[in-house]
Amino acid sequence: MTHQSIPVDSIAKNTHDAPGAGDRLPVIEVLAEIASSMSSGANTDQMLLRFLEIMVRISRAKAGAVRVLTADGEHLRMIGSIGLSPMLQDKERYVPLECGICGQATLTHSTQFDSVLQVCQKQVRHIYTSLQCNTVYAVPLRHKGKVLGIYNLFMEEPQPLSEDIRYLFNSISEHLGMALENARLTSENIRISLMNERTMLANQIHDSLAQTLAYAKMRLTVLSEAMGGNDQERAGRYLGDVEEAVDLAYSELRNLITQFRDRIDPRGLVPALQEMVEGFRKKANADVDFLNVAQDVVLTPEEEIQVFHIIQEALYNVCKHARARHVVVTLDLHEDEYVVNVADDGVGLSSGGPSDMGKSFGLTIMRERAAKLNGNLSIESRAAGGTIVRLTFPSHHGIREQA
Question: Which pTM value belongs to this model?
């Protein structure tokens, strides 16, 4: 978020000249607003600025600022202020964590206050004095024993804040500290998810397209040798292998592009599978049905993604190799274990040679996805003909009911 300043006059219009309960938000209302902001996914910087406004108004401060810990853990970055001049904001955009009263609040994990002349840097003292700011407060934003940021309040009078205001500010700081930590964890989880998906994409390229191209390269080498030896029979056979590998590589590339364009339906796994099956029904020139036997599918978003892509890869394999007329995808919940089946009436499993190399591509990735679910993936021949891909993994129904 861009560093910004809010004129103090814009929030002072509802403040009475004399202190009183009428210009203070009740503790329960302020904490309820924080909880609402956290649950709504509001921008963290905007939320911190919103409560800076409240704290400045309640304390009757002349100015205020909110700072958060930088990634290196050694500085505080000012993300916004009220009543401070642009020149002062620029000078104090980044300050060392141990600087002045902010350092004291960080070290003690408690609200500190002192004279501006005693605790602020020499080059900015006169600016605060010109704003009639004589006392500075530092209210730490903390969570689980760690300070994540600081609220600064600049007061005209030297007296300490009343006990009820200090209590409210401490409560605000604890709740907003939790919001900062949640935002950090969310960002970290997004970063991990992105890295996992990149790794998954790299694995899929390696196990499909890269291997096919490596096979084509080897065939080009022996093709060159056959042509150099004027062996037309061998040259023709190797040329056919190269052409087949290039066709397979092109098909695999198109499938990879399609897979990574596909996005799971925001409504959840079941609607996403219904939509996927409808798409494959048109592609495969076969009857493709989806049967949801589980009455209640309760999965995390990460689990839904893994199941979605396993079924997607199984259906791609059916389209490419099975020559099936009928495919059934079932989702069941049996004794706290999900069971997913993709069954077809196609040609079934075969050992095959180099020309069958495409049949095994993606299987390793499917098993890796199953492992992320703490589950198991198996591929078996059906007694009636065809193949069945079965995924089993534990549900969390029992745990959630106990909680």
Answer: 0.46
